[in-house]
Amino acid sequence: MLHVGSQAPAFELPDASMEMIQLSSFLGKKNVVLYFYPRDGTPVCTMEAINFSDHEDAFDECDTVVFGVSRDDCMVHEEFRDKHGISLQLLSDAECEVMKKYDVLTEPIGATRAGVHRATFVIDKKGMVRHILRDLKPREHVASVLKIVRQIHGH
To answer: Which domain range does residue 103 map to?
Structure first.
């Protein structure tokens, strides 16, 4: 299981514009917030994506990029992003490969497929997992993550 102090598992996933995003391209340059969520369009997922987008400048001031990851495909992400004016990048992990690496899948129940635990990983510029947040209250999620990022950045 992934824990604080571990090297963050590498990933390469497409965003809503079908551009490939690699964790390695941010090493030495940016902190990365990687938050996993069940799917686009649910009330909680929509609120969190909008809230992260609304605080994009604050994250940018701390040399931090934020990525939302779900198993939705790129077309669904694009529609969701455009409908709600979301500026953060939404990554598609349709095969759940990255979700497995970050241990955020729930056990399937009966014939249903595995679900996704809401979890957020704060990764520093060296690629180390600095914080893992699980089961946050949705209204406090972004503020909690921003506080951690500011501490890492020295604010």
So the answer is: 12-153
